[in-house]
Design goal:
Layout lengths: L2 H23 L3 H6 L4 H22 L3
Length: about 60
C-alpha cells in the first residue's frame, strides 16, 4: 500500500469517527478542536472529502 493510500485511509477513518460522534452525540470533534468552520477545520473537511474520493479508487484497485 502506498503512502498516499495510507494517509487517505487514516483521513477516511477520522471522518467516519467524526460522523459517528455527530450522529450519536451531536458532538463535532473537528469543530471542537479547531473551531466551527475555521480555516483549519475547513481544510480538514476538504482533505477528508478528497480522501473519500480516493477511497473509491482503492475499492477497485487490484493488488
Amino acid at each position: 500500500m502506498k503512502i498516499i493510500d495510507k494517509v487517505a485511509l487514516v483521513l477516511i477513518i477520522i471522518g467516519a469517527i467524526n460522523w459517528g460522534l455527530i450522529g450519536l452525540f451531536k458532538f463535532n470533534l473537528v469543530d471542537t478542536i479547531f473551531g466551527t468552520m475555521s480555516v483549519i477545520s475547513r481544510i480538514i473537511y476538504i482533505l477528508v472529502g478528497i480522501s473519500g474520493l480516493w477511497g473509491i479508487k482503492l475499492i477497485f484497485e487490484k493488488e
